[in-house]
Amino acid sequence: MRRLEGKYALVTGGSTGIGRAIAIRFAEEGANVAINYHSSREEAEITEDEVNKACRVIREHGCREMVVKANVADETAVARIFGEVIDAWGRLDILVNNAGIQKTSPTEEVTAADYDKVLGVNLRGAFLCAREAIRHFLSRDGGGIIINNSSVHQIIPKPGYTPYAVSKAGVGNLTRTLALEYAARGIRVNAVGPGAIETPINRAWLDDPEKKALVKSHIPIGRAGTPEEIAAVFAFLASDDSAYITGQTIYACGGLTLYPDFRTAWSSQG
Ligand code: NAP
């Protein structure tokens, strides 16, 4: 399927995990893709290698690629990368706000700095990128598309991860508010809410069979998801197949949003 033929997309946090899978899926569908990341992790060399591989795959699909490094929480840096993309390509059609981080800590121990850092990347970053994309979309005919990577924790509380849960709830209303504000001007804004997906953000349980089994036991479908399964939902929302959908969050979570504790009738008298 080449539903994104000739489109130009920017994927934030596209160096690894879900973002990287989205970049590759978009290229499979015919889109030219700019990959953003910040190189915030220690294994920066591994990241560069992964980005180079993703760029090669994009080229193999006959699409153009570019890499625009920046911290999405930094207003000046965000303006710079949009300038770089639009200078190079003359246009942008699809923004994917995917960059995200999480930090775990009992809430009574969360520092203001850590709170600001998580909100800065996950919510301020999504806002700053959306604002730049909207300015560009409004400057030309044809509108545009914004897709935010939210989480099941947009609606499910996550004790021990207060800043993350707050940020994703914010992404939910960022999505709905922008969708309503710009619907009549050809801009569609949606979100994807992944459940537990096998990516580096989950390294705490990925390589530990016992912890992984525990994760699986909570998921109605019985397994964690893959980045490719999430990328497929992004591709749908980026394409005209979703032309009549705006302001929605599609949960791709193996049933995690279905109150899995109610799989058995424990709450009712036999
Ligand atoms: P990941 O593998 O850790 O990838 C995160 C990406 O974001 C990396 O490319 C990272 O690059 C980039 N990034 C981090 N801070 C950044 C910053 N300040 N500016 C620009 N880029 C930055 O995580 P993932 O699991 O693929 O998660 C991607 C998104 O999906 C996140 O928004 C996450 O909340 C959401 N999500 C994931 C899951 C899951 O189970 N995996 C579930 C629900 C939602 P650098 O480190 O090089 O900066």
From TrEMBL:
PROSITE patterns: ADH_SHORT. Pfam families: adh_short_C2. GO terms for molecular function: oxidoreductase activity, acting on the CH-OH group of donors, NAD or NADP as acceptor. InterPro entries: NAD(P)-bd_dom_sf, Sc_DH/Rdtase_CS, SDR_fam. It comes from the Archaea. Belongs to the short-chain dehydrogenases/reductases (SDR) family. This is Sugar dehydrogenase.
